[in-house]
Amino acid sequence: MSEPIVRFVGIGKTYDGVTRVVERLDLDIERGEFLTLLGPSGSGKTTTLMMLAGFETPTEGEILLEGKPLSKLPPYRRSIGMVFQNYALFPHMTVAQNIGFPLSVRGIGAAEIAQRVERALDMVQLPGLGARKPAQLSGGQQQRIAVARALVFEPKLVLMDEPLGALDKQLREQMQLEVRRLHRRLGVTMIYVTHDQHEALTMSDRIAVFHRGRIQQLDRPERIYEQPSNAFVARFIGENNRLLGRLEGVDGNRCTIRLAGDALVEGSLAAPLPAGAQVMVSLRPERVQIGGAAPTIGANGHCRLAGRLREVIYLGDHVRARVALPGNDDFTVKRPIDDAHRLPAIGQPVELAWAPEHCRAFAREDADIPT
Fold this sequence. Notes:
Layout lengths: L5 E9 L5 E10 L4 E5 L6 H9 L6 E6 L2 E2 L10 E4 L11 H10 L5 H14 L15 H13 L5 E5 L7 H18 L2 E6 L2 H7 L2 E6 L2 E6 L1 H6 L4 H6 L4 E11 L2 E6 L4 E6 L8 E6 L5 E4 L10 E12 L3 E8 L2 E9 L12 E6 L4 E5 H4 L4
Parallel strand pairs: 3-8, 3-9, 6-7, 7-8, 13-20
Antiparallel strand pairs: 1-2, 1-4, 4-5, 9-10, 11-12, 11-14, 12-13, 14-20, 15-19, 16-17, 16-19, 17-18
Helix pairs in contact: 2-3, 2-4, 3-4
């Protein structure tokens, strides 16, 4: 592989000398990738982005851009494009002047600025709007202008700090795909900060999940979702059901777990644990089948639990069933809308089934980390 375009080497950040906002961060970012920094508020993701941009200074460690340290370079000399949540467009300037601003401060001539601005407007599918003011544009159009301004001077990488947070749901989802398509077409390195799991899964080549100033897991979206490395990641990314139990047997990363009510199920361990350890079991709602009390669902080798149907909620393309189980009175199952007619009446016994590979076990003390 080629040398990473960005390297965080032993980066730490504290504002008061006591609380560590970012804790000993080592991170390589590959050229041309779309990396998302994902985590709850206060997890360190935005501070990490701002240190790379030059708006915050690391307390320790060094950030390298193409092998060169950034610590003594001011933001405007880092060749980094930036897109903010509030767009940060100049209201008194036209769209063309906003997009051309990074070029004018770099001393580029007026004729070349005009050409590059037109190309940038075409790139974000807003040709002919250069004479308008930002207030004359919709929120989605303003966001595209902010992206065009970040890309117009052909930076080495583009940083985006919650750039779609102010948009409504439908427009936000549309812009996620637009930004992703733009990234693929241009091949520029993009680093994106969000607390929205769906956004991270939709857009990213890799996701770095932050919690308490540390990266909990760095991986492809499908592995983050299907194989979370600890209980925090499992709880923060998507929905999951949690069942408490004890390890009965361990064979490599496969295990047998005794749940409340004395049921035995099989699963996989996120990290090595000895037999007898207290664990939390994580199950995604869409991985669970549900049927009547008779054992008619699932194939041989599936894990099964008996419960009672409490509620069925219609959500258009799927239904959400709530089931009472021993040790969990609010177990959730998501099934396609076509399965709704197969569910028994509310209050009736049901059987749940799932494949062992979809059952992931974590150490109980890890599971108690609050989100």
